[in-house]
Amino acid sequence: MRKRYLLGLGATMAAAAVLAVGISPSDAQQPTSGPAALTSADSANLKGPTQPIFFRHDIHAGELKLQCQYCHYSVGVSTEPGIPSMQTCMGCHALVQGRDSTDKAEIKKLKDAWAAGTPVEWVRIHSLARHVRFPHMSHIKALGPNACATCHGNVARMPQVYKVNNVNNMGFCINCHLERNVTRDCTACHY
Amino acid sequence: MTMRSDDPSVPEVEADAGVDRRQFLKVLGVSSAGAAALTGCSTDRVAKLVPYMVQSEQQVPGIATVYASTCAECSSGCGVRVTTREARAIKLEGNPEHPVNQGTLCSRGQAGLQALYNPDRIGAPLARNAAGGFDEITWEDATARLAAQLSTANGRLAAINGYGPSTFSALLEGVVGGLGGKVVNWEAFGREAESQANQRTFGRNDLPTYDFGAAHLIVSFGADFLETWATPLEQARGFAASHGYHDGTMAKHVYVGPRMSLTAANADEWFDVPAGTESWIALCLARAAAEHQGSALASELSAYTVAAAAEQTGIAAARIEALATAFATAAPSLAVAGGIAAQHRGAIDLCHAVNLANAAAGNLGKTVHFGTGSTPTAGYAGAQELFGAMGRGELAVVLVHEANPLYALPKSGGFADAFLKVGYKVSTANVMDETAAACDLILPNLHALERWDDRFPRAGVLGLMQPVMEPVKPGMHTGDVLLAAARAVGGPLGSFTAPNFETYLKQAWTIEASHRGASNGEQFWRTALQHGGIYESAPSAAPAVVNSAVGTLIAPTFDGDGEFTFLPYPSSMYHDGRGANKPWLLENPDPVTKITWQSWVELHPDTAQRVDVREGEFVELASPHGMIRAQVYVYPGIRPDTLGMPLGLGHTAYGRYAEGRGVNAVDLLGAADGQGFLPYVATKVSITKTHDYRQVAKTEGTTRQLGRGIIEAMPLAHAVAGMTPKESMTAVGHPPHEVNTERELEAIDGWYEAQKEKWALGDYAREAMPKWGMAVDLSRCTGCSACVTACYAENNIATVGEEQIFKGREMSWMRIERYWEGGEDGEPLEARFAPVMCQHCDNAPCEPVCPVYASYHTPDGLNGQVYNRCVGTRYCSNNCPFKVRYYNWLKYNEKAWPEPLNLQLNPEVTVRARGVMEKCTFCIQRIRGAQHQAKLEDRSLRDGDVVTACQQACPSHAIAFGNVHDPEAAVVRWKRDPRGYTMLEETNVMPAVTYLAKVRAVEPVGHATAATEGEH
User: Which residues of chain B have pLDDT under 50?
Assistant: First the structure.
């Protein structure tokens, strides 16, 4: 466990360095079809709930191509995918300041929260009924590390995350299990 | 919580976030309980994901983190492994590395979690105000007050410490001693009589350890070694190893005492002697052994003849003679004495006699190991002396730590009055117990799972404790309090410079490391922390007898002239009273009487008839020292001249679960010294009818098997001959009645095949599926009920309370069945125990009757129960021949776990709501967890990957579990044993649980009559 942590820490620093370089003004290579320029005021018009920080999955996972597992660190080993600690955010954003005023304002919220020692309370998008077990790691193991979109949609294109699939509905699970001819035993998930 | 999905169009609906543990944990890295908040004026509660500020390197959400620690629930000092999820302890299991319990844990130890999360824990220091109540004060204020009192005490101070040998106790000694005060080490069930007897016999007062596993004959004189006496887990393991049937042999166990305790119920023979006469039999054993060995002791003991013993005890001379001969020749045998139930005024004589018997039979160094046990604490004499000083107003300050003397000592001794004469009384209890309620200052200590601590329960064992989580209630380690007070007092306490107790503890361990020649103190500490302590075997000594004189045995004296001998005994759940505030222990039935949530008085059926009382009727018991009122339980396992009553209830404080529940048996006792110990069995009582009646909250149905062959037993000879239970019955002339008549077979023709076809429906990938099965060896099971508590803890089973148990609504997925055999018409009484959980029948009767397919068979052979499909028709329960399905009658999900008890809930298991049927799942969460893990590691499951909670806890390793398709699996080996049978075979339900018939060293009672009864 300690080893993994240390690896993770290393990765944090490495990624921070890469990002710092990648977004520096001297780098003229902007992606041609990059995420739309949006301000936090647009948040209300986007699908999905407004979050306390206008966190852009389309920038992080889309433009910057960060692996989902970079932040959702336990998805491959645990039933729970994990949400990034504030420290993980700050691992990059201690250096990454954002490229426009919207970015800067949102990153400031993060930094203020970090300085105040109060975690950001994200609005939850996906949650299952309490009598269902969904082992994330087994699904990642079976479908590969990029399988997240199967249930969560193409988050890399979402300026604001919304629910694409009704994961609360057992039909959604069963369809997939039927397609792949894997277990439909009730106690696979219900116990 | 709700079982059925909320409106799926509403994204984040939480029905009740306050209670909902699982959702709480699914919100990863939740940092506070306020995870759910209202948004705007919407009625929908929006769940929030609250991240950690800094991710702990020891926590991965969804994966348990396990810490090694030491149990603090009794003086055994067993090793525990604490399973934590998202920084909350959710389960206690034994530490396999610990020499005392080797991976198992008793009910009381497991219920330590309910002390940790007890809703009645005190959250702040309390100081008595002028009105007589308590005010909450700050910790700074509290330590300042303590320091002020200590510095002005002028040596007129003392402490009562029930914690036992440890670094903390040394600190307490140092602080109190440094100020000229005295620490009295006292615990309610001290073993003073044994210690003094050892001094008399061997010239050393330490307590030995016993190797029950090596003995061929075990004789217990009132020592309840399977439930409360000494180190029950270690002893139960040894007992199962020797007394459990193995390799064509088994040890014999004989119990001598007036009451059939759980230990006695596991004996092959019970000598129901009058209280106080046990010594006569012990001396016969000693004499016979000495004669056999040709030792001089034989002539010294020549007066103790079998005839004299028979006359004193009322036991037939032939039985005593046979036992004495067997004891002398068993090589090695083992005799033990010293339990509370034999703590009469002749207890030292008894222990001395047993010492002589062990010495004469050559058991020292073989089954009795001196030098490996514990050192005695000061005990009752010290406490008496201290309270005497209190009563004379000689003390200004007294500190009570881990002890509750005002509950555990007899009221007649005037201890409470003496205590009140102390100027300033301080308690470290974190629940308001009787003693704390009488104090002026309460400094609630952290729970054992929240603090740094250690304890040294026996030679060679240094048990370490570490905080596994943040404190549930803001508390302060008493060690930190003492150090802070010492710094404030200064002067004589100037040497206590450690900034906190953690440092103090580490310093002590560093010194220990250098004593042991460890080159790296830090490494020593880390190793200890990782393993829960340092475990070494101390050298065993076989001391010589220095004094074999017995003198004249006088019959023990009793206070009062009542008709009955009063026999208070330690309850295997409540122990010395500290278990009384834990719902698991209150609800888990007493293994012998099956009574929950109450005190009772045990009357022999003849006595009950003579006094004209029935079960449930209230009677008044009066002794010269007091009077109590309790319900009658008619019990064939007690002498007609004796009344038994469990200790541990009858609290006047101690929180919502304990207060006002039952009666305190100690109230009938006198406080007179029995030579250094409190004589528990020294009172005669009279009994008076009251004509009041109340139902007894017990979980048993009929007490007899009525020929159903539920718990089979066979004599040793038959087991050796490889007979099946049926063959054994046939051999004694009672062939089992025919099962599966032609008509029955016709009715079920093709049924099993159809069932099998149905299971395969779930096996979509047509993989080779495992089939889960269990085997229970009844020759090892002692009925101790540790498995039941483990099941409650693992599976989020609600405790329902006394009122609901009246209605038969207990929810124990796993229960211990206890049936009586014999006990009438001059036949000896025999108890049979069996754990009964869902049998996961192949032909499960519950499945076809479910209208909504909530009860069905999984492709891996489990009888599945899908809570979210269940609509609560209860047809399944009606149709279950084992009655192992439990219905949620009330909103237990909301009321069974008042905060913060809910923090204990296992996040891997759904908390069932009202209207849902539930039952044993074979710990499916552990099965699925192991399967997921195996998949992650690209391997198939191995035998032993899945260990059910009951199997894990079992002190006598009586349960095997695994895949019955795996020919190498332990469970398959067990199931192949000729002793194997399934319960209620004639119903053709084909259970997945195989029981291995109990084996008795004597002919089982009722063996010859059971079959005939069945034909009625």
Answer: 1-44, 1010-1016
